[in-house]
């Protein structure tokens, strides 16, 4: 099963949901840029620019509802949370991948994306499919700061870095993809150590407004439902329990870091319960289908084929776009909810 997950998992994990905001926030002069670190839920195309098999987002049907219906490496039918944060904050339309060689100075000034599909807090997780580990993403951010200083000068660059919003969304693959998650009873503590080190290094580089997503309810992803959920294809409790355990530790650690760095605003974002509510009450959000992804052979994923020759025509009815990831509709609800809950904390 691990090999099956590894093959199918040239993807990554999903995201939660809730309400809606009609107009973008006016953050002119308050939040000048957004920077994102993490896995496939937020990777807007970095994996396109180095050798790796983790490029499922370039297959036909991906990007079905994106600009021009083009696959860009985004693992969804449209925009990802990375894009929606900058859109709803009124900064720009999309958050480009940092490794895109066509980026211009104006793209860098307002924020870029360092996330990489199939990555995790643990560098060994990222090594499984040769993608950008969290430490490597941090190295790229250091490189970015140097470029930014060359564009706007050191003083302005440091101002942008300290006032920007940072989003971290990873850890999903550490639990569902890395064999150590099952073999090592203390692996949640190992993950936490990697996460804490990363957040402290971000702080040392000047980041102050940091939103950290917990791991989602992994066991409710269609892949896990259809392989280990029994005849009823229920959520897999063992995976959800691991996610819940890690999230509890992460939330406590973030509180501790806020006490250690009182000038920082580190916010724990509850990814887990958002998705559980979406799965348990889909009609509340206008959904009809939870157990299968829209982008799957025949509308089902029982064969665990990570391709999508024909996407369903009614993608708005589906919670999930594919085996793991939500549709843009779901991601938009998620980001709206996050901003409603935490925006004032970030700017206070």
Specify the number of helices.
Answer: 13
Largest sheet properties: 4 strands, parallel
Uncertain spans: 1-22
Shape: globular
Mean pLDDT: 89
* Secondary-structure content class: alpha/beta
Number of strands: 6
Give the neighbour order of strands across the main sheet.
1-2-3-4
Helix fraction, binned, reads: 40-55%
Order of helices and strands: HEHHHHHEHHHEHHEHEEH
Whole-angstrom Rg: 19 Å
Cα distance, first to last residue?
A: 47 Å
The proportion of strand residues reads: 5-15%
Keywords: Hydrolase, Protease, Signal
Family: Belongs to the 'GDSL' lipolytic enzyme family.
Pfam families: Lipase_GDSL (PF00657)
Protein name: ATP-dependent Clp protease proteolytic subunit 5
Summarize the structure.
The protein has 348 residues and is α/β, with parallel strands linked by helices.
Topology of helices and strands:
Elements: H1 2-8, E1 34-38, H2 81-88, H3 105-109, H4 123-127, H5 134-152, H6 154-163, E2 165-169, H7 172-176, H8 180-183, H9 187-204, E3 209-213, H10 222-228, H11 237-260, E4 265-269, H12 271-280, E5 289-293, E6 318-320, H13 328-347
Parallel strand pairs: 1-2, 2-3, 3-4, 5-6
Helix pairs in contact: 2-13, 5-6, 9-11
Describe it.
- The chain has 348 residues and is α/β, with parallel strands linked by helices.
- Helices cover 41% and strands 8% of the residues.
- The chain has 13 helices and 6 strands.
- The strands form 2 sheets. Strands 1-2-3-4 form a 4-stranded parallel sheet, with helices on both faces.
- The radius of gyration is 19 Å and the shape is globular.
- The N terminus is likely disordered.
């Amino acid at each position: 099963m691990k090999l099956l997950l590894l093959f199918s998992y040239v993807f990554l994990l999903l995201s939660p949901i809730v309400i809606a905001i009609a107009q973008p926030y006016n953050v002119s002069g308050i939040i000048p840029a957004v920077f994102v670190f993490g896995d496939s839920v937020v990777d807007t195309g970095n994996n396109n620019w180095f050798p790796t098999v983790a490029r499922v987002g370039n297959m036909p049907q991906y990007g079905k509802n994106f600009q021009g219906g083009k696959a860009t490496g985004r693992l969804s039918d449209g925009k990802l949370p990375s894009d929606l944060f900058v859109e709803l904050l009124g900064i720009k339309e999309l958050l480009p991948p940092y490794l895109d060689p066509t980026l211009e100075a104006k793209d860098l000034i307002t924020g870029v994306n360092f996330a990489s599909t199939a990555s995790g807090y643990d560098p060994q997780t990222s090594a499984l499919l040769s993608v950008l580990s969290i430490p490597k993403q941090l190295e790229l951010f250091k490189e970015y700061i140097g470029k930014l200083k060359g564009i706007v000068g050191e003083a302005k660059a440091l101002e942008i870095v300290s006032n920007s919003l940072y989003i971290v969304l990873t850890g999903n693959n550490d639990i569902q993809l890395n064999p150590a998650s099952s073999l090592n009873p203390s692996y949640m503590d190992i993950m936490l150590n990697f996460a804490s080190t990363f957040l402290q290094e971000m702080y040392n580089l000047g980041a102050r407004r940091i939103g950290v997503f917990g791991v989602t309810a992994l066991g409710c992803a269609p892949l896990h439902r259809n392989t280990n959920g029994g005849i009823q294809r229920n959520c897999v409790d063992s995976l959800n329990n691991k996610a819940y355990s890690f999230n509890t530790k992460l939330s406590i650690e973030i509180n501790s870091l806020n006490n250690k760095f009182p000038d920082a605003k580190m916010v724990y974002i509850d990814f887990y319960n958002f998705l559980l509510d979406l799965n348990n009450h889909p009609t509340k959000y206008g959904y009809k289908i939870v157990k299968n992804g829209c982008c799957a052979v025949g509308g089902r994923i029982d064969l665990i084929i990570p391709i999508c020759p024909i996407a369903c025509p009614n993608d708005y009815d589906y919670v999930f776009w594919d085996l793991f990831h939500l549709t843009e509709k779901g991601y938009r609800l998620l980001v709206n909810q996050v901003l409603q809950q935490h925006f004032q904390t970030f700017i206070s």
